[in-house]
Fold this protein.
Amino acid sequence: MELFLAVFIMISLIGVSNVIGRFVPFIPIPLIQIGLGILIALLPAGIHIELEPELFFVLFIAPLLYNDGKHTPRSELWKLRAPILLLAVGLVFITVFVVGNAIHWMIPSIPLPAAFGLAAILSPTDAVAVGALAGRIHMPKTLMRLLEGEALMNDASGLVAFKFAIAAAVTGVFSLPQATVSFLIISLGGLLTGAIIAFLIIGLRAILRRAGMEDVTMHMLIQILTPFLLYMIAEELGMSGILAAVAGGVVHAIEVDRVETSIAKLKVVSNSTWSVLLFLLNGLVFVILGLQIPHVSNIIFADPAFDNLEVIGYAVIIFAMLIVLRFAWTFTFTRGSRLLGKYKEQSMPGFKMLVLTSFSGVRGAVTLAGAFSIPLVLEDGSPFPQRDLMIFLAAAVILLSLIVASVLLPLLSKKKESADTAEQEQLDRQVQIQVMTAAIRAVHQESGDENEAAVSAVIADYKQWIQEIRRNGRGRRNGPHSHEKETELRRMALAEERECMLDMLEKGQISMENARQFLKMLDQVELILANRLHFWKMLFKVLWGRLQITVKRKEVTFTKLSASDMELLRKSKIRTCEAAISELEKVRCRENEQETIHVISHYNHMLDRLVRSPKVENHSDSRFYDQKKELHWVAVQAERNALQELYEKGDIFRETAGRIRGIIREREASMYEQDEMG
C-alpha cells in the first residue's frame, strides 16, 4: 500500500507541475518537478524511495531512449556522425582524465580511480533533460540534433568508463588495453544486439499479421515490451543495454516508414499510448530525482567531517570545469573541422554557438542513478571511500547544470521580436490561423452521426473567422497595449450591461431568477476575459457574490430555463447590448478609436444575431445548442494546446503567445455569450 501511495503521489505531482508550468512558463517543467519532489521529501510524512540503479535504467531510461532513437531523424544523425562521436566518445574520455585528476587533486580523500569514476558518471548528458529543456528554449535546429545524438550515445561511453573506473577502485587492478577492447565490444555489441532483436520482433509481428492476428491491443503490448526486452537481453549478454534500446528505436522507425496501411489504426493507438507513457516516464524521472536530493544532502550537511560551504564550492568548481572543458573541446575541433555539419553558407560555428553547445550539456537522472550504483564496500570489505560525498557532488552538478541552462540558454538563444508592427501583425495572423486550424481538426475528430449539424456549424464559424483574418489582416490591433485597452472596454461594457439588468429588475421588468441567470452569465464572461493578474480577483468576487445569494436565498437553483424564459433573456440581452453600445460611444476618443470600434462591432454582431436568431422551440434545437456549446469548448482547448505547443517548441515567443491567448479569450467569451443565448 505504501508503494502504491508513493506512486500515486508522484504521478499527481506530474499533473501539478504541468499546471504550475502554464502559470510560470519561464521555469522549465523539469525544475518544477524536481522542486515538487524535494518539497514532498521534506514534509514530515513525506515519501522516500530508494533509487535502485538497475531498475531505474530498465524502467525509465530504456523506453525513453528507445523513443528518442525512434523519433530522431536518421539522416541528420548520420550527417552529424563525426561531431556526435567527438562529443559522445572523445569528450567523455577527455572529461574522465582531466576532471578525474582535478577531483583527486582537490579532494585527496577520493582515490584517483574513484575520482575517474565520478568524472565518468558526470560526463554523459541526459537525453531526457536535453529534450525537456529544448521545449522551452529556442535553439538552432542543428544544435538540437547534435545534442540529441550526443545524449543518445554518450550514456554508454560514460557508463562503461564508470564501470571500469569503479572496478579499478574496488579491486585496485586496471588495464587500459583490456578496457579499450571491452569498450568497443560492449558498445558495438549493444548496437548490433539491439538491431538484431528489433528485427526479430518486427518479424514476429509480421508473422502474426499474416496469420490474421491484427488485434491492435496485442501489437501495442509487443511495442511497449520491446524496449525492456532490448535492454535486458543486451545486459544479460554483457553488452550495452542503453545502446541496444537506441538501436531498437532506430530500427522500429525504419519499420514505421514501411508499415502497411492495413494497420494504420495501430499507428494512431501507438502514438496516443506512447504519448501518455512518455509523459509519465519523463515526469517521474525528475520527480524521483527531486525525492533523492534531500536525503543525499542531509547525509553530507549533517556530517561534521564536512564543511558545507567547502563541499558546495567543490560542486561549483567541478561544474565549471565541465563547462570550460566542453567549450575548449568543441572550440578546438571546430577550428579543424565543421563541428555542426557541412554548410555551404557558413564555414564554422560562431562563438555564440559554441557557448550554447557548452551550456546545453545538462546532466540528469542517469548521472544520479549511476552514482547510486557505486558499491558500499571495497574488495577487502572496507567502506568505499567518500561514497556519500561522490553522490552529493553528482546531485549538485545535476541541479547546477539544469538551473544554469534554464537561465542562460534562453538569454543566449533568444531572438528579439521584431519592432516592426507589420511583421508582428503578420506573425500573429499566421499563429492565429495555425491554432484555429488545430481547433477545426479537433472538432472534426469529435464528429459523429448525432452531432453532425453542430460540427458543421462550429467548423463553418472557424472557417469564417480564418477568412476574416486573411481578408482584413487583423492580427494585432494598434500596438502592444491594444489588447489591454480592448479588454478594459469589454469590462466596462459588461459593467454597463450589469447596471442595465439591475435597473430592469428594480422596475419589475424581469424576474429575480432570470436576472440571476443573466448576471451569472456576465460573471462567467468576465472570468473568461480576465488575464492572470485579474483572474483571482474576479474569481473571488464571483464566488463571494454567489455565497451571499446562497445565504440570503437558500432556495436558489440554477435550473435549465424554459423556452419562454430564454426568449425573455434574449430580449433583455438586446437591451443590455444597446446600453453597452451607448456607453462605449460616450468614451470613444482618438486614443481608443480602433479598440472601441472593435468592441462595438462585437455588440452589433451580437445584436444582429439575437434579432435574426429563431427561438428554441423543441428538444432537437436544444440538443443542437448543447452540442455546439460542447464543441466550442473542445475547439478552444485545442487552440490553447496548439498555442502552448508552438511556444514550447520555440516557434513563438512569450509576447506573441500572450497576445494570441488574449485573442482566444475574446473568442471564447463571444462563443460563450452566443451559446448561453441559444
Notes: The two ends are 50 Å apart (CA to CA). The first helix runs from residue 2 to 23.
